[in-house]
Amino acid sequence: MMRKNQQHKDDATSTSRLLEGPFKDYVIFYQPYSPQTDLVIVLQTPSMRDNLQEYGRDIVFMDATHGVNQYGFPLFTLLVRDSHGHGIPVTYIILGNEKQETLQLALEELKPTFPVPPRCFMVDKDQAEINSIRKVFNESDVLLCWYHVTQAVTRWPSRSESGVSGPEKADSRAHIMQFMSELKSCSTVCFYFNCFKVQFYLVM
């Protein structure tokens, strides 16, 4: 039985027919899979582009979701924040893999839809995402979301190589987490580095 919108019993053929037919106005870039090329699909509706043009100058959020299709292809979503603080998707990217060069190609094709390079991107700690953004949007800063920063800082002290593992170092671990909380509250670059200086003198 063919699914709704399925154009052919072969999924690759069906996808090509959809993206080159009824959905072609939403396709920024489409590279079918072949033995020589990886699958790359970049989708953006007119309203998505309008929102990117209006809100995409400051910060753009990017993250990947897995398990949304039977082939395990990652789905990347790019969002902006509107004037009410709500997240709005402005692009969907489907890739055949998570290699840096594959994502980088998608971002290169997407870049012309941006009004200007955004001030910054916020991502998780995935290095391929970070490297791809830095290659394509070298004018933009790359920020890590606080959840992943906290997660990494929480896990690291429990490892023996950190030097602060074990029950006897509980106070040291608490001090590290307090320090990270203070860094998060810094509203300017100057305050951020001053916080580092204070901590440096405290441990000397």
TrEMBL record:
Q: In this protein, which residues make up the domain named ZSWIM1/3 RNaseH-like?
A: 40-143
Question: Which Pfam families does the record match to this protein?
Answer: ZSWIM1-3_RNaseH-like (PF21056)
Q: Which PANTHER family match?
A: PROTEIN B, PUTATIVE-RELATED, PROTEIN B, PUTATIVE-RELATED-RELATED
| Name used for this protein in its record | Uncharacterized protein LOC113115925
Origin species: Carassius auratus
- The record's gene field reads LOC113115925
